[in-house]
Amino acid sequence: MKPYMIVCALALAGCAGNGNKGAADSAKADSLKIDSAAASTSGAPAQNMEYCFVHTDGTAGQDTTAVHLAINGKKVTGEMSWLPKEKDRRKGTLEGTIDGDKINAVWSFMQEGQTDTLGVAFKLSSQQLAQKPLTVDTKTGRQLTDGKADYTVIYNMDNCDKFKK
């Protein structure tokens, strides 16, 4: 029971740092669903858990990418939304697998009325998500994950508000 309490405390502490107060605080606690049998003290991501993360970029931090992951054993499902301030948005689902702390998934998304897919690679810790950056294949013009790069796009834990309907 003790490892479960440590993971719960760490997960809630990570969400509390977002600056949201009041009613949002209770929503944060509800957004983290933890299976006590899956909790771990090794720093590796807990299994059978949901995570939400946000990354902002752009000159004033106006562009947002939000990721919601649900891990069940080796299977990873979820949603990913790229929400630039003044550009075309990409919203869709993630399906993949986790091996240790590495996630390989396919992001199936809709952009400008067209459906497309893109392979994405993440590294998950108990408080942060890192992604390998995307690059453009000059021959095809399509984006793809830069397999040679390190996990340099950093997402911070969030309360899942962007995924509530």
TrEMBL record:
This is Lipoprotein.
